[in-house]
Amino acid sequence: MSESLQTERKNATFNIKELTDTLNGGPEETRKRKQIESLVFNTPAFHRQDRFQLSREEIYDYSIKVYGELIKLCKKENIEIRYDNPDYVRLVGCIPEEIPVGLHVGMFSSSISDQGTEEQQKKWIPLARNFKIFGTYAQTELAHGTFVRGLETTATYDESKQEFILNSPTITSTKWWPGFLGRTSNHAVIAAQLYTKSKCYGIHMFIVQLRDLKDHKPLPGVTIGDIGDKFGFDTVDNGFLRLDNVHIPRENMLMKYAKVTPEGKYLPPTNAKVAYSAMTLIRVVLVRGSAKALASASTIAIRYSAVRHQTETAPGKEPQVLDYVTQQYKLFPQLATALAFGFAGNYMIDTFNKIHSEISSGQLDALSELHGISSGLKAYTTDTATAGIEVCRRACGGHGYSNACGIQHIYANVLPCVTLEGENTVMYLQAASKVISTIKRLEQLRRSGMDQDEAWNTAGIELVQAAKAHCHYFIVKNYLRSLEKLNMTPSLRKVMNSIALLYGNYGIDENAGDFLESGFMTGEQLNLVKAKILQLLSEVRRNAVAVVDAFDFDDKYLRSILGAYDGDVYNRLYNWAKSSPLNKTEVHSSYTEYLQQLLKSKL
Ligand SMILES: CCCCCCC/C=C/C(=O)SCCNC(=O)CCNC(=O)[C@H](O)C(C)(C)COP(=O)(O)OP(=O)(O)OC[C@H]1O[C@@H](n2cnc3c(N)ncnc32)[C@H](O)[C@@H]1OP(=O)(O)O
Ligand SMILES: Cc1cc2nc3c(=O)[nH]c(=O)nc-3n(C[C@H](O)[C@H](O)[C@H](O)COP(=O)(O)OP(=O)(O)OC[C@H]3O[C@@H](n4cnc5c(N)ncnc54)[C@H](O)[C@@H]3O)c2cc1C
Q1: Which residues are listed for FAD binding in this entry (predicted)?
Q2: Which residue CA neighbors atom 32 of ligand 2 most closely?
Q3: Confidence band for 433, pLDDT divided at 50, 70 and 90
Q4: Which of 153, 378, 423 to mutate to test the pocket of ligand 2 (most atoms within 8 A of CB)?
């Protein structure tokens, strides 16, 4: 155990377990979480030491193995695989890899349970829940992702056969990006333009079988594969799919809201956007996912910054880098943001569950509001967390650039979230319409003679800025309100208040221009904010390691040599480097192959 970390933990002014329980929702929730997590951390199949030395194909193969192990574990422990089962969420939440079950449960199954009729749910949900089929959610196409109404895949109703014919009419209509589509899934919920009696009724969802259940070969009319290497998400076979007049029964259209009768008559839903419900669920999940990712990166960087000593500030005295105010200004706001986003994630999940049960009973009034706030918070938290995770990585200096740091994998897994489930700019624009000052701007543009679309586009930058400000304001308000409602000992509350005040003041300092421009604050007041930040950094310093310890991440989850709980960084780093495949032999074969000839040749 690193002496520096031991001292940090001894100096803490609050009870770490109390904060862990507070963040988990109580000691019983902590107990349940740790009990469930131990199932994963004690199953060797979930932890390959050489995971980051595997080829893309080996990693995919490994992810499918983990998929199978997870299903076996859930069956053995009688944990129902549902996104609304807390034990399942705890279990899958401690596996740091993106594995196929996420999309199968979080989008394929949830689309059917949210948008399928009773009969359709009775037929498909047991198959999905018992993994008799593997599904994905195939909406995005080669040429369209954001513009859902512009998708080109067609589903044309043939009333003589009472079937839909699914077709990819153009190269641009090829489904492109859906997770676990390329190699894994044998079914998909497919978004397609519905045609009946030669009329188009827009995007609807259809269950389509893609592969034979006996030998997993693509069915007739199905061309399918992986889209190739990506920036990250290397366990995921994001795929492409072309459909050449694939026939499916009429009953495969998800018809809880919109319907097509056997005679081909279209019966519209009360709100067409209910078809988008699967996206809303994942946007809600991504808010909490961003908090967890930033908390993980903060844990690694703050522990390492307590272990790392650098530069003599006095003869013979080399301080911990965590004592540098610049290092505190990098890391403590990330820690505060992770906590703020955690509370925002809790709010989002609670709000989603409340509105989701209303929607399930047919009350769709709050659908648009849920869409607005979930889109805005998804955009704001994924943007901010992605940037903050990189700040944490850079704060680890040279070893932050080694894969031994562990932050790279967190970053690579969070980075696509600024795009998937709705490209963030477009998502901000879903919340901006609620912001009064921007509306005034739009009205001014309209009065100048612009039409709505042109005015909206011209005001786009301000709309996005307004949406960000709205989301930031909401998160600060929700953070403070959440702390007020929590029972905490005075010592813990003091620490949490300092961190929350740091988050608020840091946000003002980061956006000082807006506060000045809007007249909300003077230059003098902004100087007071900067002074307050310095004071708060000093207050947080003493407890920073104890606060990240309270996140209670297992070393097997963090997979970080720099951020391990015991802080034994240098020994581990040396042994990790020595175990690199490149060091298998004293002399690498490239010497005899190439270097030796170079040395001998007369260049
Ligand atoms: C744990 C599981 C791991 C999963 C890993 C993640 C896998 C990734 C999956 C994906 O990426 S799936 C594909 C995601 N794609 C998108 O997010 C596409 C983004 N684009 C859209 O959502 C829509 O195109 C749009 C930008 C919202 C615009 O939609 P549309 O053009 O149809 O809207 P308008 O005709 O302009 O009408 C706006 C009107 O509709 C309301 N609305 C829009 N979307 C929703 C919704 N999801 N829910 C409810 N309401 C919605 C919107 O509020 C407007 O209402 P009013 O203001 O007019 O009342
Ligand atoms: C890792 C990963 C996993 C994915 N998994 C799935 C999946 O499982 N299923 C699925 O269906 N899809 C999936 N996707 C696709 C994803 O949902 C889309 O990429 C996403 O919705 C963005 O759409 P796009 O790619 O068309 O981006 P575009 O919209 O083409 O974005 C390009 C640029 O255009 C800008 N832009 C676009 N429209 C507007 C506008 N109206 N106003 C202002 N600016 C605009 C954007 O802001 C952006 O800067 C995945 C993507 C990734 C990266």
Answers
A1: 140, 179
A2: 423
A3: very low
A4: 423
Work out the mean pLDDT of the chain and round it to a whole number.
Answer: 94
Distance 440 CA to ligand 1 centre (A): 25
- Consult the annotation and say whether 140 binds a ligand: yes
> pLDDT tens, 298-351?
999 999 999 999 998 889 899 999 999 999 999 999 999 999 999 999 999 999
> Rounded to whole angstroms, how far apart are CA atoms 405 and 339?
22
Q: Is the CB of 151 under 6 A from ligand 1?
A: no
To test the pocket of ligand 1, the residue of 430, 433, 434, 442 to mutate (highest count of ligand atoms within 8 Å of its CB) is 430
pLDDT tens profile 82-120 = 888 989 999 998 988 888 888 999 999 999 999 999 999
Q: Is the pLDDT of residue 253 over 90?
A: yes
Burial 310-332 (b: 16+ CB within 10 A, else e): eeeeeeeeeebbbebeebbbbbb
Tens of pLDDT, residues 18-38: 999 999 999 999 999 999 999
- What is the C-alpha end-to-end distance of the chain, expressed in Å? 53
The Å distance, Cα 196 to ligand 1 centre, comes to 24
CATH topology of domain 3-26+278-551: Butyryl-CoA Dehydrogenase, subunit A; domain 3 (1.20.140)
Residue type, 428: Y
- 287 burial via Cβ count (<10 Å: 0-12, 13-18, 19+): buried
Listed by start position, the domains of the chain span 3-26+278-551, 29-108, 134-274
How far is Cα 352 from Cα 280, in angstroms, rounded to an integer?
9
**Ligand number with the minimum distance to the CA of 190:** 2
pLDDT band at 455 (very low <50, low <70, confident <90, very high): confident
Q: Which ligand is nearest to the CA of 180?
A: 2
Q: Is the CB of 253 under 6 A from ligand 1?
A: no
Give the Å distance between the CA of 188 and the centre of ligand 2: 19
Q: Do domains 29-108 and 134-274 have the same CATH topology?
A: no
Instruction: Give the closest residue (by CA) to ligand 1 atom 56.
Output: 368
Rounded to whole angstroms, what are the CA distances from 345 to 282, 286, 338? Answer: 12, 8, 10
Ligand 2 pocket member 178 (CB < 6 A): yes
Chain segment 500-552, per-residue pLDDT in tens: 999 999 999 999 998 898 888 999 999 999 999 999 999 999 999 999 999 99
What is the per-residue pLDDT across 378-394, written as a single tens digit (0 to 9) for each? 999 999 999 999 999 99
CATH class of 134-274: mainly beta
| 209 closest CA partner among 249, 240, 238, 178 | 249
Strand-pair category, 154-158 with 187-196? parallel
Determine the CATH number of domain 29-108. 1.10.540.10
Residue 69 bears catalytic tag: no
Tell me which of 98, 163, 421, 539 is the catalytic residue.
421
235 is in an annotated binding site: no
Is 283 a pocket residue for ligand 1 (Cβ < 6 Å)? Answer: no
What is the three-class DSSP state of 585? Answer: coil
Confidence bin at 434 (pLDDT 50/70/90): very low
